[in-house]
Amino acid sequence: MAGSNQVLRQVLNLLTKGSGFDQMRLISGGDGKCQCELTVEEEHTNRGGTLHGGMTATLVDSVSTVALMTTGPGLPGVSVDMNVTFMKSAKIGDDVIIDASTLKVGKTLAFLNVDLKLKKDGSLIAQGRHTKYLGNS
């Protein structure tokens, strides 16, 4: 498991390098899942001082892609649909847990779910759904 977490860290670093959230920390991953943590910094926020919606969508995209890469052929796929429902804000200094899981991998499509929660109380900040095209297998 330690070796696989190192590979996941490398993949995560490639996906996030220079994107404003390279401070994200991998907690665990494998078997279609990936869990990361991010401390909200000023660069992650909107004018209201809370986690920016675009940043949240990027977290959904990136962490779900890493979760998908822990399944079957390990390919990242191409996004065909993604939605994010926002339920609560996260402020500067808040630790956010990003928990992605692969719901289903079919012949050409994969379906993923991502929950973003405040670490301090487990309350749900946002939930994302991500569909990825895997190509013709």
From TrEMBL:
Claim: Lyase is one of the keywords in the record: no
Reaction catalysis annotation: decanoyl-CoA + H2O = decanoate + CoA + H(+); octanoyl-CoA + H2O = octanoate + CoA + H(+); a fatty acyl-CoA + H2O = a fatty acid + CoA + H(+); hexanoyl-CoA + H2O = hexanoate + CoA + H(+)
Database matches in SUPFAM superfamilies: Thioesterase/thiol ester dehydrase-isomerase
Alphabetized UniProt keyword annotations: Acetylation, Cytoplasm, Cytoskeleton, Hydrolase, Lipid metabolism, Mitochondrion, Nucleus
Principal localisation: cytoplasm
Domain of life: Eukaryota
InterPro entries in the cross-refs: ACOT13, HotDog_dom_sf, PAAI_dom, Thioestr_dom
Domain Thioesterase: 48-122
GO biological process: lipid metabolic process
GO molecular function: fatty acyl-CoA hydrolase activity
Localization annotation: Cytoplasm, Cytoskeleton, Spindle; Cytoplasm, Cytosol; Mitochondrion; Nucleus
GO CC annotation, single: cytosol
CDD domains in the record: PaaI_thioesterase
Function: Catalyzes the hydrolysis of acyl-CoAs into free fatty acids and coenzyme A (CoASH), regulating their respective intracellular levels. Has acyl-CoA thioesterase activity towards medium (C12) and long-chain (C18) fatty acyl-CoA substrates. Can also hydrolyze 3-hydroxyphenylacetyl-CoA and 3,4-dihydroxyphenylacetyl-CoA (in vitro). May play a role in controlling adaptive thermogenesis.
Subunit structure, as described in the record: Homotetramer. Interacts with PCTP.
Family: Belongs to the thioesterase PaaI family.
Protein name (Swiss-Prot/TrEMBL): Acyl-coenzyme A thioesterase 13
Species whose genome carries this gene: Lingula anatina (Brachiopod)
